[in-house]
Amino acid sequence: MPSGTRARRHGARLSDERLDYELQRRGLTARQFARIAKVHEVTLSRARQGHPINENTLRRITAALLEIPLMPGADLLITGPDKKTVDGGA
After folding, report:
1. Local mean pLDDT, 10-residue blocks, the chain (90 residues)
2. How far is residue 40 from each of residues 25, 36, 47, 73, measured CA to CA in Å?
């Protein structure tokens, strides 16, 4: 390996639909969530576009999701990932 380069590791890829769903359940924008999770807004945006993230970023995102309470009743109104409606109907 040439000097000055690092081996590239494969990182985790987030489901953009699932992350958007989880943010909606908490009433947050991506910008607000990036600040809470202590990740750069650009990093979160790139992750939502399918770019891999490193383990530390994944830990910060998951920890923040676990800390932030759900908005009461949000699941009644928000369409979940891979579903037309929350109850599974069309």
Report:
1. 50 92 95 97 94 96 97 88 55
2. 21, 10, 11, 30
Asked whether residue 49 is domain-assigned, the answer is yes
Alpha helices in 27-73 (DSSP H): 30-37, 41-48, 55-67
How crowded is the C-beta side of 78, counted as CA atoms within 13 Å? 19
CATH number reported for the structural domain that contains residue 58 in this entry: 1.10.260
Does the residue 37 lie in any domain? Answer: yes
pLDDT at position 82: 72
Token look-up 């923040």 returns 64
0.85 exceeded by the pTM?
no
Residue 86 is assigned to a structural domain of this protein = no
Domain that holds residue 44: 16-71
